Amino acid sequence: MRTSGKWPLIAVLVSAIVGAVAANAADVMQKKTVGTYRVELHVLPAEPFFSKADVAAKNVKEGMEIEGGDAPVAPDADSHPNHHLVVHLFDKKTGKVVTDATVTMSFVALDAKGTPAGTPTDVAVVVMQAIGKGAASTHYGNNVTMPAGRYDVTVTVNGQKADFAVAAADAPATPMGHMKM
What we know:
Strand order of the largest sheet: 1-2-5-9-8-4-3
Oligomer: single chain
Structural class: mainly beta
Strand content: 35-45%
Distance between the termini: 44 Å
């Protein structure tokens, strides 16, 4: 085999791309426009949640600060959540983050034909911000248990519905506390 020329360089580049894709195999992000909103759905590794008081008292630097909504599911909960299923919402005209929406979410596994396989699971929606990032990081969702597979995720924002088809990996690739903003 020849070791000079462009082929070794191509092999190195392909290897780097494959490695980068594998490193983030658990992270999913899809965008849709519904009504007056741009909705970004993220499927990420489970994240820890903290109250405002905990953030201040314990000098917490990473994780999610609870702003309202339903009770968060801790990464070490009995349900063994492996993903942080969330949406970021933006006004589609201005691009500004929407911090006061009413959001519902659910997901259902899909079979090999893409047909729902079972009953949808409702997500207890927490309104949260990434610690130290402020209102611009406001998003909605929770930690959930999603075994590897394909899913239909339904998000309703102020009465307007968006459906997403996503694939979830079994084990998260990115360590907790490193949500991409």
